[in-house]
Amino acid sequence: MTSEEVRLNVEKALDEIRPFLQSDGGDISLLSIEDNDTLVKVQLQGACVGCSVNQMTLKSGVEMTIKKHAPQIEKVVNIAV
């Protein structure tokens, strides 16, 4: 899979997650895909920034969905503003 295909699959995953985050007043954006397409850096936004369960959301929701669309991704990290 090319880097462009990985990016498209990660964007598809984020589009799947975004409505759930937006319903709680938050959002997410893709910052970068690094380390030979194994590391995704995202930024939680809005209400998600100060939410006490955002790490759980990141691991169980965001990372799981991204890995479903792009299995070569090993880790997803949130880069705080």
TrEMBL record:
What InterPro entries does the record tag this protein with?
Answer: FSCA_dom_sf (IPR034904), NIF_FeS_clus_asmbl_NifU_C (IPR001075)
Where does the NIF system FeS cluster assembly NifU C-terminal domain start and stop, copy by copy? 10-77
Instruction: Mention one GO molecular function.
Output: iron ion binding
Where are the bilayer-spanning segments? none
A Gene Ontology annotation in the biological process aspect, one of them, is: iron-sulfur cluster assembly
SUPFAM superfamilies xref list: Fe-S cluster assembly (FSCA) domain-like
- Provide the family line: Belongs to the NifU family.
Q: What is this protein called?
A: NifU family protein
